[in-house]
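Recap slide: Biotin carboxyl carrier protein of acetyl-CoA carboxylase, sequence and predicted structure.
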Amino acid sequence: MTKNRNDADVDFIKALAELLNENKLTELNVKREYGENDSLNVRVSKQMTPPPVAAAPAMAAPAAFAPAAAYAAPSTDPVDAPGAVTSPMVGTAYMAAEPGTTPFVSVGAQVTEGQTLMIIEAMKTMNHIPAPRAGTVKRILVADGSAVEYGAPLMIIE
């Protein structure tokens, strides 16, 4: 490589950097061919940092305007509740056998051990989730049609 070509390559890279900034790009990849088995591969990139956001001071909402969910939510993680029923798989939760039909259970319902609580669809297979014990459904923690993860709390039965 000659001195002139090296200077030309440096100028080329500087021009790419300017092009990156002028067009608000984050990355450019260019291959410059000089001949057989002779090329220059250039990758110019910059990391975009979002502008700092000033955090608003935390303020408690007046009781009259607090969301209703705030009253129903327990102070502990639902998965730690003694009657938590957790998901045995990853999938989509359905509360009824078919859309528009009555859900398997609702809050306040008495269930027996083995009774179907919901269905989790995983890989086009409908898996019935049975009640692990008899009791009363205290909370349903997932919405119909929502995605669930393995071990995620589905409902509380006490």
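The longest strand covers residues 27-35.
The chain is about 15% helix and 35% strand.
(End of recap.)
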